[in-house]
Design brief:
With 373 residues, the chain is α/β, with parallel strands linked by helices. It is 29% helix and 13% strand. The protein has a seven-stranded mixed β-sheet, covered by helices on one side. The protein is globular, with a radius of gyration of 21 Å.
């Protein structure tokens, strides 16, 4: 085990990071781009000695234990709607090439590219850490978002079930939670989520980037297909769970033409309201996304990057609060206007559900509420 800053113990040394090479089958990133903290920068180069059939190799997932000493993360960002979150995994097998969480892998000595989607840190101690947090003297319950950084229902969850175990703790303590995912696997946990929703303790958001199956497969290779996400919206709504559809991100020149048809499909599936985030390209994501465009959508690459700069003050990314998720300029204003009108047209303007922290209680038998017997 190798100790890392912040109390994380990894089962592999930094040198175990995967080699820098062209994209692998079923993965989103096209390379294992060097992280910003690396002293040596690697550049991909094809010398012609590729597989005879021209296909990229498969890349297995490596799972490492994340030995975090806490499970609830906090933030003070003024332009997001939550201040507490839980991420049962670091890294995400969904492989979404645009994922804003990719740069976090660089901090641990791994690439934000292929490493991010194939070297996953799992938190098996998460449920116990969460229960300990709930039992602390003076703990004040506030809604917690599950899956804010990486998807809590990514493929690995089917086997590991760390997210499900965390949900069980939240249910036992009647703690309010919101959840966000682009995975149909969340339907497995309706037996936990539906009773919580009946008590005003759960709301959900389903991310739908595009209805184009081919584009979705290229952008988000291991996430649920678009029609499965719409089915998931319907299933959550049928279970009594308030549902927001998130068009996140909107990629100008690639998915923005779908705003109206996507929102109509989400409304038909039962979504209560809708929101969007404009594509963000901070840090290493900029080069990863450009690689992806060159490989997967070369004909659109120039227009897409041009539109992005038009909405980012001439840059690939502008990190200003409030505008980082919306952009600026005429094209950004057009997207915002179309989205607002579509929300009204398809009746996706219901107020967001308000969760009820007053229902929080420590169950008998817990450390803070021992049983008389």
């Amino acid at each position: 085990m190798t100790e890392r800053p912040g109390g994380y113990a990894l089962n592999a040394p930094q040198e175990a990071s995967l080699p820098h090479r062209p994209g692998a089958r079923g993965r989103g990133a096209r390379s294992n781009i060097s992280g910003r903290y690396e002293s040596v920068v690697h550049e991909a180069f094809d010398d012609g000695w590729t597989e005879a059939d021209g296909e990229a190799p498969r890349l297995a997932t490596t799972v490492l234990k994340d030995a975090s000493r806490s499970i609830i993360s906090t933030n003070q960002s003024p332009d997001i709607s939550f201040d507490q979150s839980i991420n049962p995994y670091r890294g995400c097998e969904h492989g979404c090439v645009y994922c804003y969480a990719r740069p976090s892998h660089a901090f641990w000595g791994y690439s934000p590219g292929l490493d991010f989607e194939s070297v996953i840190f799992a938190k098996p101690d998460g449920p116990a850490l969460l229960e300990a947090a709930f039992n602390k003297i003076g703990y004040q319950p506030r809604p917690i978002l599950i899956g804010a950084n990486t998807d809590a229902w990514q493929p690995l969850e089917r086997e590991r079930q760390h997210t499900r175990d965390i949900l069980k703790v939240c249910a036992r303590y009647r703690h309010p939670i919101s959840v966000i995912t682009k995975s149909a696997l969340i339907r497995r946990d309706l037996d936990i989520l539906a009773p919580m929703a009946a008590d005003g303790l759960v709301k959900a958001a389903i991310s739908v980037t595009t209805l184009d199956r081919r584009l979705a497969r290229d952008l988000e290779p291991r996430a649920a297909a678009p029609h499965r996400r719409l089915e998931t919206i319907a299933a959550l709504k049928a279970a009594g769970i308030p549902v927001t559809v998130m068009m996140a991100p909107i990629i100008p020149g690639l998915t923005d033409h779908e705003i109206e048809v996507l929102l109509e499909a989400a409304a038909d599936s039962g979504a209560d309201n809708a929101a969007y985030v404009l594509l963000r390209l901070p840090l290493e994501i900029r080069d990863l996304f450009r690689e992806w465009l060159t490989d997967k959508r070369p004909d659109a690459a120039g227009r897409v990057m041009s539109l992005i700069r038009q909405m980012r003050n001439g840059k690939d990314y502008d990190a200003q609060w409030a505008t980082r998720g919306r952009g600026t300029g005429p094209y950004a204003a057009l997207i915002a206007s179309r989205f607002r009108k579509a929300i009204t047209r398809f009746k996706l303007d219901a107020p967001r559900a308000v969760l009820d922290p007053s229902r929080f209680e420590r169950p008998l038998g817990s450390a803070a509420q021992p049983s008389l017997f």
